[in-house]
UniProtKB/TrEMBL annotation:
Belongs to the ATPase epsilon chain family. Residues 1-57 form the ATP synthase F1 complex delta/epsilon subunit N-terminal domain. One of its GO terms (cellular component) is endomembrane system. Keywords: ATP synthesis, CF(1), Ion transport, Membrane, Transport. The keyword Membrane applies. Produces ATP from ADP in the presence of a proton gradient across the membrane. This is F-type H+-transporting ATPase subunit epsilon. It is a peripheral membrane protein. It comes from Chryseobacterium taeanense. One of its GO terms (molecular function) is proton-transporting ATP synthase activity, rotational mechanism.
Amino acid sequence: MNIKILTPEYVVFEGEVDSVLLPGKNGEFHIMKNHAGVVSSLNGGKVKLYTKSVDEAYAKYFTKENEKDSVFSYPIKSGVVEFNHNKGIILCE
């Protein structure tokens, strides 16, 4: 599935991921391939991408959670996500 993470200043990430874990208003939620369409506001926390690697152009924005799993995190203050037809856009600050 394709995920794009945008801030007012720059594109943080754009690419294919296996899944994404997001800090929702009512707790964390996981979006996986073929997930139903969703629009949700996001709290401060970490957006976690589950993917084999992050392109070199975006790597500077992410922290690798651990060496065993391919999980990359990006801290946000707040935001909104729209996901539909295996494409997601995360607008955040």
